[in-house]
Amino acid sequence: MASDTMRAPTGATFNAANIEPSAPILLFDSGVGGLTVLEEVRKALPDAPIIYAADTAGLPYGTKTEAQIAARVAGLLGRLTERLRPRLVCIACNTASTIALGMVRDVLEVPIVGTVPAIKPAAAMTRTGVIGLLGTEATVRQAYVDRLAHEFASDKRLLRYGAPGLVEAAEAKLRGEPVDPAAIRHAAEALRGQPGGERMDTVVLACTHFPLVQAELAEALGSDVRFVHGAPGIARQVARLTAGQEYARQRPDMALFTGAGDVSDAHRTKLAQYGLLEVERF
Ligand code: DGL
Fold this sequence. Notes:
- The chain is α/β, with parallel strands linked by helices and 282 residues long.
- The protein has 2 domains: 3-116 and 232-281, Rossmann fold; 119-230, Rossmann fold.
- Helix content is 41%, strand content 15%.
- The chain contains 11 helices and 10 strands.
- The chain has helices at 35-44, 66-84, 94-107, 119-125, 137-140, 143-152, 164-174, 181-192, 214-221, 231-241, 265-273, and strands at residues 25-29, 50-54, 88-91, 112-113, 130-135, 157-162, 202-205, 226-228, 254-257, 278-281.
- The chain is globular and about 55 Å long.
- The model is unreliable at 1-12 (pLDDT under 50).
- The structure holds D-glutamic acid.
- Residues 29-31, 33, 59-62, 93-95, 136, 139, 167, 207-209 line the site of D-glutamic acid (DGL).
- One of its GO terms (molecular function) is glutamate racemase activity.
């Protein structure tokens, strides 16, 4: 679905023949958004050991500057890959990918799969020619998005909206708390309120958090709107890049969080539903 969103890894000295069967796939996001990618990776590779790392101390990325995001992502992925020796890194975050993917690929010697807005499949799906793009504020302003729009949707109308409220809504839902209806309403109105918005029939969820609140968005936008996001395509790319490799899980899959503070029981239960049975600080 989102095969336009990934590029071949450049880890020049990475030697696939020496991969330990216990070497994990590392998924990285600012918070719980990457779990929507994890879900698809699990379907594709049920035996793969997975470590899910979330920079909760830096959450949300979407309201930060490019320099702040690039520094956090490059620094943390450097430390994480050194410590965990993953066979592949998946940056399960549109904001981090659209800003820092190239930079991280330049320095890390491991295959890296990124996540960028699924504009190409949306352009193929729309009947009315009007596409909504919901991302973080940082993502929707990226030149990367301009390039995708130019390349794949130049004959369509692309309505962008940076929706910080939806990140918190998704985080709350994952903690087992209620979703703020105002955040959902604002996002729907911000898209519908733009010129051509009444004809919008396809919405790109260009933040990995947003599929977690897709049901709420669907209710607010109406049944004529279809959603598309990159997770299934990312999982296919991860499977392609690890094809033929062996897996042996030696310990339960775990979540690593950079933030301080307790992880509630409700939160742990949700993480366990994604197969993340342990939670540690990083
Ligand atoms: N999940 C992230 C994304 O895909 C970002 C959320 C945030 O930290 O603002 O863009």
